[in-house]
Amino acid sequence: MTILTRRTLAFGLAAAALTACGNGIGSQGPNKIDARVDATLDELYTNYPGTLSLRDKSVGQLVMPLVTEAGLGLGGAYGRGALRVGGATVDYYSTTKASAGLQIGAQQYAHVLFFMTEESLTSFRRAPGWAAGANMEYAYPEGGSTLAAETTTSMAPVIAVIFGQAGLRVGATLEGVKYTRIIP
């Protein structure tokens, strides 16, 4: 008879989270990431036309086409994407997220960080690993609707738009997100 301990459960969840991180982008090189970034931006601008004004006002966008997130008590997320400046890819990044608290479930989503100032973009590019902080505003567009006026006129240096959620994850957690430059 096997006894399920907390340590066994934690290791099992960690293994499941790492397995879930194979989110389809893999290490197939920059061409694959760029193709997914193009498709993600097309979907964003087509389904949420209010984001066009964010694009036009921003100095750069970090596009994460697919982030996979799972949690049961402890959780994590992973995704890969590209930083676009002037419509061209200038670097590739990964995002990792850790969370702890009352949570259960898994989901996948896309997100785009719009850098609204040169200073925020420069700070992001110079950092060895950049953590999302209080200077970022989140926007969650509802199906087919545009972003609220306060989001598109916000003075926040970075605006994150999260969309295309699939799956279900519920709970109350403490979370941390980190973006790191990668070589695909």
From TrEMBL:
Keyword Signal: yes
Signal peptide (UniProt feature, chain positions): 1-22
InterPro entries: Ysc84_actin-binding
Ranges for domain Ysc84 actin-binding: 97-179
Signal keyword on record: yes
Alphabetic keyword roster: Signal
PROSITE patterns: PROKAR_LIPOPROTEIN
Protein name: Ysc84 actin-binding domain-containing protein
Superkingdom as given in the UniProt entry: Bacteria
TM segment ranges: none
The organism of origin for this protein: Pseudoprimorskyibacter insulae
